[in-house]
Amino acid sequence: MNNKYESNKWQEVINWVQKRSLFMLHYCTGCGAIELPPTMTSRYDMSRFGIGPAATPRQADILLITGYLSTKTLRRVIYTYEQMQDPKFVMGFGSCTINGGMYWDSYNTIKQLDKYIPVDLYIAGCMPRPEAILEGFLKLKEKIETGNADGYKKYNKEYETYKKNQEKVLGEVKRRQ
Amino acid sequence: MRSENELIELLNRDLNLLSVKKLRKQNISIRLENEELVSGLNYLKSHSYIHLATISCVDWIEDNQFELIYHLFSYEDKISLSVKTKINRQKSRFVTIKNLWGVAKYYERDIHDFFGIKFTGNDNMDELILENWNEIPPMRKDFKTRQYVDKKYDWRQYHGQE
What we know:
The structure holds two protein chains of two kinds. Chain A is of the alpha/beta class. Chain A has one domain (9-166): Rossmann fold (3-Layer(aba) Sandwich), CATH 3.40.50. Chain A has helices at residues 9-18, 36-40, 71-83, 94-99, 130-145, 151-157, 159-170; strands at 22-27, 51-53, 62-65, 89-93, 121-123. In chain A, strands 2-1-3-4-5 form a five-stranded parallel β-sheet. The N and C termini of chain A lie far apart (33 Å). The model of chain A has no long low-confidence stretch (mean pLDDT 86). By secondary structure, chain B is α/β, with parallel strands linked by helices. Chain B has helices at residues 4-14, 37-46, 104-115, 145-152, and strands at residues 19-24, 27-31, 51-60, 65-74, 79-88, 93-95, 118-120. In chain B, strands 1-2-5-4-3 form a five-stranded mixed β-sheet. Chain B has a two-stranded parallel sheet with strand order 6-7. In chain B, strand 1 and strand 2 form a beta hairpin. The radius of gyration of chain B is 19 Å and the shape is elongated. At the A-B interface, helix 3 and helix 7 of A face helix 4 of B.
């Protein structure tokens, strides 16, 4: 196990259990939201991989950012992310979260999601199809099992950097915790 | 139920139109003076044009003017009517129509967000869509989008990119 953070046998068991039961909160900001109903329901049926939708941030493990984020929604995403309990994972959907995508020169959408919250996995595409999303989930499960999905630890460790980036685009961010 | 030509005839008779255009079937646009806009809308509202779909705005920077367009619809005539007027760009102030259509106060706040036009009589001009915006309004033609984006956001760097 080549993990830069401390790990032991007990952690391995926890990871093994963790990856078999994941609940995702899909934050439907962009067009990616439309790919999720077929992924969730009988056509692609993601529950066969042990992944299900969650109702609130506090009950979720995965935060899906489905597409572009305007600065106004980024503020809400940060609130949502900080409400979630550890361990938590973030998946960025589509090119908009990677480099701005088709909103690359928009005055009001962010260009790189991982500057503001830690992203464990990106799914490229505009938009990624359900097959790609399932592939992404399987990759994430792999990363959880090997202990590499450690974005939330990074967020706690490099909190000041993230906070500085967030405040550069948003002004003051009121923390609710 | 009036046809397009009957409606144009009626408007020509009762309103002081600067111009009138039949754009296509069921779609007419008219232009009014600033001062006559509110009374014109009032007249139209009492002649079955009861639906205000939206208010839009165009920045004619070379003419130093903003154009406000009120989109009306009649359920009886089945005609969309755009009522246009031009206002001074420097002054960027107009009168509210929230007494005619209550919903207009939100459309006016929206226009204030993106074009910086103030509406006399509509006091609540808080930001509706934008948040913490302190540049010039983003939909004005003299707003330099690229410059702003370069300043505010960082581009992702790729290997091999110059």
